[in-house]
Amino acid sequence: MGKTYLNIVLHNFLAIEKNKILFEEYKINRDKNIMELLEKEFKIFYSKIVLVTYFSKSLYYAAQKYDQKIRRYQSFKEELLEQNEDSFFYAENINVTDSDNIANYVADKSIFKAINKLTDRQKQILYLLHIKEMTEIEAASIMNISQQAVNKGKNKAIKEIQSGLNANAIK
């Protein structure tokens, strides 16, 4: 780990009022119990950073893999349509109101809370993309918005989830 990274982590750790008070008290008293408490709090703080980083990377790589899968499926579907346009019919019943249930697919309490803070439209976008496994274009078609709006909504939702997790990590 680089020095800059460690400085940022320590700065954010000490930005928490409780930790700052403990650190100031340790500087004055040099009490071993206070030092142990500070170390415990830092381990918890750092563990949350690692968890958020892991979650972020997992989402990114899962999205990449999923996108590749969808592109292969789209290519296959287009070939099939070209071969037999008259006999192939593709339709899927989508109940868009199910988007409120996206939080029900999450087991982690902090992620559940973060998702519940999203707007209904953001929940709907995440539901269609990740639960119904649609492409952004398909979700856009169902929601009657552009693919760019779906992409922007998805990215904003992910950032809000990450910031919600970071806020919970700081507490």
General description of the model:
With 171 residues, this protein is mostly helical. It has a single domain (48-170), classed as Arc Repressor Mutant, subunit A (Orthogonal Bundle). Helices cover 75% and strands 0% of the residues. The protein is built from seven helices and no strands. It has helices at residues 3-14, 17-29, 32-83, 109-116, 120-131, 136-143, 147-170. The longest helix is centred in the middle third of the chain and has 52 residues, at 32-83. The radius of gyration is 22 Å and the shape is elongated. The two termini are 24 Å apart. The relative contact order is 0.09. Mean pLDDT is 81; it is low at 86-100.
Please render the helix and strand layout as text.
Blueprint: H1 3-14, H2 17-29, H3 32-83, H4 109-116, H5 120-131, H6 136-143, H7 147-170
Helix pairs in contact: 2-3, 3-7, 4-7, 5-7, 6-7
Q: How many strands?
A: 0
Q: Which architecture does the CATH hierarchy give at level 2? A: Orthogonal Bundle
Strand content: under 5%
Q: Mean pLDDT, nearest integer?
A: 81
| N→C terminal distance | 24 Å
Low-confidence stretches: 86-100
Gross morphology: elongated
CATH homolog superfamily: Winged helix-like DNA-binding domain superfamily/Winged helix DNA-binding domain
Count of the separate structural domains? 1
Name the CATH class.
Answer: Mainly Alpha
Write the element-wise H/E pattern from the N-terminal end onward.
HHHHHHH
Note the total helix count: 7
The assigned structural class equals: mainly alpha
Annotated CATH topology: Arc Repressor Mutant, subunit A
